[in-house]
Amino acid sequence: MENITYPENKLRAFTKSVFLKMGCPNDEAEQATDVLIKADLRGIDSHGVARLTGYVRLWEAGRINATPNVKILHETPSTAVIDGDRGLGLVIAIKAMEIAMEKAKNVGTGWVSVKNSNHFGIAGYHAMLAAEKDMVGMAMTNASPLVAPTFATERMLGTNPIAVAIPTKDQPLFVADMATTTAANGKLEILQRQEKDAPEGWIQNRDGETSTNPFELKDGGALLPLGSDREHGSHKGYALGSIVDIFSAVFSGANYGPWAPPFVSFLPLAKDPVGEGLGHFLGAMRIDAFRPADEFKEHMDNWIQRFRNTKAVPGKKVLIPGDPEREAERERVISGIPLNPKVVQDLNEVAGKFDLDLL
Amino acid sequence: MENITYPENKLRAFTKSVFLKMGCPNDEAEQATDVLIKADLRGIDSHGVARLTGYVRLWEAGRINATPNVKILHETPSTAVIDGDRGLGLVIAIKAMEIAMEKAKNVGTGWVSVKNSNHFGIAGYHAMLAAEKDMVGMAMTNASPLVAPTFATERMLGTNPIAVAIPTKDQPLFVADMATTTAANGKLEILQRQEKDAPEGWIQNRDGETSTNPFELKDGGALLPLGSDREHGSHKGYALGSIVDIFSAVFSGANYGPWAPPFVSFLPLAKDPVGEGLGHFLGAMRIDAFRPADEFKEHMDNWIQRFRNTKAVPGKKVLIPGDPEREAERERVISGIPLNPKVVQDLNEVAGKFDLDLL
Questions:
Q1: Measured between CB atoms, does A237 come within 8 Å of chain B?
Q2: Comma-separated ranges of CATH 1.10.1530.10 domains in chain B
Q3: Domain B183-223 architecture
Q4: Between chains, do A78 and B77 touch, taking CB under 8 Å as contact?
Q5: Residue B264: pLDDT over 90
Q6: Is B291 within 8 Å of A251 when comparing Cβ atoms?
Q7: Most-buried pick from A214, A298, B70, B233 (CB within 10 A)?
Q8: Contacts of A164 in chain B (CB under 8 A)
Q9: A203-220 pLDDT tens trace
Q10: Among the CATH numbers 3.50.50.60, 3.40.50.300, 3.40.50.150, 3.30.1370.60, which is that of A68-182+224-290?
Q11: Which of A173, A205, A232 to mutate: most B Cβ within 10 Å?
Q12: Which residue of A has its CA nearest to B135?
């Protein structure tokens, strides 16, 4: 079936009305909506409004608190730990980044670890909040365990993304936003819908053997860390995912590793939790804490121009992290956001439930 | 030819005497020696005393200043930029980490970017300095351009390592220390000595085609970013290497990307430098800036135990980052450090030059 394309504003209004029906305060419903819509605009369809029904189900299961009382539990001039009170990660991460930026304003950098949260959307969104304020922004989160460490047959880590956004002068922002796996789960979902095989090196079966069946995760299989196998550096992807897990959850007191709560509401929470909820880690570094901001930004422009002009193989060009997403955004703000019919159907079920106009 | 094994202390005395002959102050000669010997003990032979002749040649070429005046150029309570005055990176990075730790003591975290430096040895050494003081330690550096970004046929980045060391209670430290490439250059050097083919996915030839010839770099080839190719996430390895480059060199005012100075003295420096020398980035985060130190360390022990007990494929076990290096160290402090005869020959040439006893 063909995708159906919606103008950004229509999806924005719909999404906000759902968050309002869940009981979110108006400003927080707007923030949560913005995170999802930006994901869709930037072409990261797996993290846009397609996730909205997931949040609704978690809320119905009592796992999301629509009116959380977010608190700072502990802080120093450059750090804080915050308790998200089971709120929407989408909103909590924005608050955490605001705290990080405030600390950076005062002492150069700010670092905030968050517990008792839920899925925070695309990591890049939160990192970019800082980059717009002449700070380097960093955002990471742990997530539902889907990834097997090198040599493992068990799922121990989430796709645990790392995002880093860096300010520039005339060039567009440098925005790296990557799962620490070879392929993000969203890419696998696309293959599932298309009933196509996955490339080797993305997933393994329940016995730890390489597989190309995109449905392998439903049968005890796992995603592979960046690097795919030991010979190609999967121990590095595993280490990166572990670092994200530790900064997000051991710093804060959230659940780590296999205890991380699942995003889907039909999977049970761990019976023996080691912390509260999911964890995030947000950082902001003022560029002028290192070097005059103009000087830094001029050199970033030079960095980007030099890398963009790298000699490339015929027919290809060297991209700067963030290029494909910006390209998608440029197009979709005009032409609209294409949704899979299955996603539209799910959203219309939510509309029915909340007595809202259908999409 | 067989390796020749030396007791740690003999190599330590020899190495220190070489740094002293270069004119390093006694304490700095000891520091530089410790970084190299620890690399050998930890099994990272490519970064141990095998590099000593390289430092000597750089010093002879006037590219290393044995008595640098290391200065803080700019600082905030949580950040600093330091000018390494063309000194040994081995020593400058230790000073930079000391500054980072002092700042962490005061405001929770400390972040130091360094310019005008040289090769700093194994990144893990510097990260571990902080972990021994109940801080998470981070160390990165840019390096001689040997790596082609995704789709490139040009070498634009170094193997730009990231190290993260995390304190524990009864378990050994978590120490991740990884090049942001599929395989470190040292692994390629081992294949060159053995005249064996490299696995696919490690290197490409001058036209950007995958190659298994370990000598490809001498003919315009390049190392590949972690992920190996686009389908397996090489754009992520490229992004990670880029972030290391920017934090190390754009923050500080060092040379970045293809301008990074080569480690080997026979290659010329860039004619149009964009900064001074090589750059590093060091960070320290006090664990009790987030959570009581004991609590953090107990959960780290639990994290490590759970991951060590992950179900694994038959005959394998899941390792914790730092395990293989610690295993090597446990053995080599007793049995000694094996050196390739070619390395011994090079070191004895240095001995002759400086009128020192042969190894």
A1: yes
A2: 1-67+340-359
A3: 2-Layer Sandwich (3.30)
A4: yes
A5: no
A6: yes
A7: B233
A8: 239, 243
A9: 999 999 999 999 999 999
A10: 3.30.1370.60
A11: A232
A12: A251
Segments of chain A assigned to CATH 3.30.1370.60 = 68-182+224-290
Q: What are phi and psi of A352, to 5 degrees?
A: -60, -45
pTM for the whole thing?
Answer: 0.98
Share of chain B above pLDDT 90, in %: 94
Question: Which of A72, A76, A154, A304 is the best mutation test for B, with the most CBs of B within 10 A?
Answer: A76
A244-254 residue pLDDT tens: 999 999 999 99
Q: Are A111 and B111 inside 8 Å of each other by CB?
A: no
Query: Distance between CA atoms of B17 and B19, rounded to whole angstroms?
Result: 6
Tell whether the model's pLDDT for residue B195 goes beyond 80: yes
Residue A181: list chain B partners with CB under 8 A.
233
B166·A235 Cβ contact <8 A: no
B48-72 tens-digit pLDDT: 999 999 999 999 999 999 999 999 9
Q: What is the pLDDT of residues A242-301, one digit of tens each?
A: 999 999 999 999 999 999 999 888 889 999 999 999 999 999 999 999 999 999 999 999
Q: Does domain B1-67+340-359 have CATH number 3.20.20.370?
A: no
Across B257-268, average pLDDT: 92
Chain B residues closer than 8 Å to A228 by CB: 228, 232
Summarize pLDDT for A324-341 with one digit per residue, the tens: 999 999 999 999 999 999
Test A252 with B182 for CB contact under 8 angstroms: no
Q: Residue B165 carries which side chain, given as an amino acid letter?
A: A
> Per-residue b/e over B216-245, b at no fewer than 16 CB within 10 Å?
bbeeebbbbbbbbbeebbbbbbbbbbbbbb
C-alpha A64/C-alpha A209 separation (Å) is 36
Query: What interface predicted TM-score (ipTM) does this complex get?
Result: 0.98
In the structure encoding, which two tokens stand for residue A284, read together? Answer: 């902001």
Q: Per CATH, which fold does B68-178+231-290 belong to?
A: Ribosomal Protein S8; Chain: A, domain 1 (3.30.1370)
Which residue in B156, B237, B321 is closest to A242 by CB distance? B321
Domain with CATH 3.30.1370.60 in chain B: 68-178+231-290
Section B151-162 average pLDDT: 98
Q: Which of A318, A323, A325 to mutate to test the interface with B (most CBs of B within 10 A)?
A: A318
Exposure string for A76-100, b = 16+ CB within 10 A, e = fewer:
bbbbbbbbbbbbbbbbbbbbbbbbb
- Give the pLDDT score at A350: 97
Q: Give 3-state DSSP helix, strand, coil % of chain B, rounded to 5.
A: 45, 20, 40
Using CB atoms, pick whichever of A233, A240, A310 lies closest to residue B152: A310
Structure tokens at B282: 């060091």
**Structure-token match 């927080």, residue found:** A28
Give how far Cα A34 sits from Cα of A61, A163, A238, A275, B343, Å. Answer: 24, 18, 31, 29, 59
